Amino acid sequence: MTTLLNPSLTAPTQLDAALRGRGHAVLSAASLCELLHAAADELDALRPSWNDLPPDGHLRDGGRYRRRRLSCFVVDGGAVTRVPHRAHWQPVEYNALHGGLERWFEPIRDDVIAQPVWARLLAALGAHCSVLKGVQPWYLEAHQFRIDTTDGIGRPTPEGAHRDGVDLVAVLLVERAGIKGGETRVFEADGPVGLRFTMSEPWTTLLLDDARVIHESTPIQPLAEGGHRDTLVLTLRAGGFQGPPAS
C-alpha cells in the first residue's frame, strides 16, 4: 500500500499571510467552501464535465495521456468577464517543452461557466491576488486537465519543475482515482527549501505566488483500469495575457 504524505493546511483566515510569508498555501475542501461561501455540492456539480475533455494534441513528448479545455477571463473586483477564445502561449523561459507555441484548446463548456460557484471562485482568487500584488484587473486562464494512465504513465507536468510566468497559480484537485504517484512538489525559486505532499481529497486547493516558488507534480501510474487525475488550474496575471512578442 502506498503511503500518501498529506499537505499542511492553511485556514482561510490565514491565506493572505501564508502567501505573503512563504509564497504558497493549501486549503482543504471545507476551507475552499468557506472561502467561497459555497456548499460542497455546488463544486461537485462541476465534476462531470471532466469526463468530456478533448485530447491535448500539442504534447511534444509524444504522449497521449492528457485531455484539457481552456477559457480566459478578466477579473476586475467582483466582475468576472469571459473574453473571446484565445490560444495558450508561454515563453520558452517558463516552459522549455511547449514554450513559443500557440496552443489552441477547446473552450470550457458553457454550462460549467454558468454555474454560480464558477464566478465566485474566480472573483475570490482575484481578490486574494489583489491583496498580495495590489488592486488591479487580473487576466485569468482556466485550464481543465485530465491526466490518464491509458499508456501506463501520465505526466501532470511534462515540462518539469517550473514557474508559469504569472502572478498567482491555483491548482484544484477535482478527482484522483485508481492511481499511484502524482506527488506535488513546491520549491523556493531562489533558495534550498522545498516540500512535497499528495493532494487526495477532491477540491483540495494549492495556491502559489508564481514569482517566489516553482512547482511540479510527479508522474502517475495505474492501480486500476481507467486511473486518472483531474485538476482545475487557474492562473492570474497582471497587465494582460501572455502572448507572442509583437513582430
Kindly list the characteristics that best describe this protein:
247 residues, alpha+beta, Jelly Rolls, seven-stranded antiparallel sheet, three-stranded antiparallel sheet, 5 helices, 12 strands, 30% strand, globular
Task: Give, in order, the helices and strands.
Answer: HEHHEEHHEEEEEEEEE
Helix content: 10-25%
Biggest sheet features: 7 strands, antiparallel
Distance between the termini: 54 Å
Strand content: 25-35%
Number of strands: 12
Shape: globular
Counted by DSSP, the helix tally is 5
Q: Structural class, from secondary structure content? A: alpha+beta
How many domains is the backbone divided into?
Answer: 1
- Return the CATH architecture: Sandwich
The CATH topology is what?
Jelly Rolls
* Arithmetic mean of pLDDT: 92
- Side by side, the strands of the main sheet go 1-9-5-12-4-2-3
CATH homologous superfamily assignment: q2cbj1_9rhob like domain
Rg computed from alpha carbons, rounded to a whole number of angstroms = 17 Å
Low-confidence stretches: none
CATH class: Mainly Beta
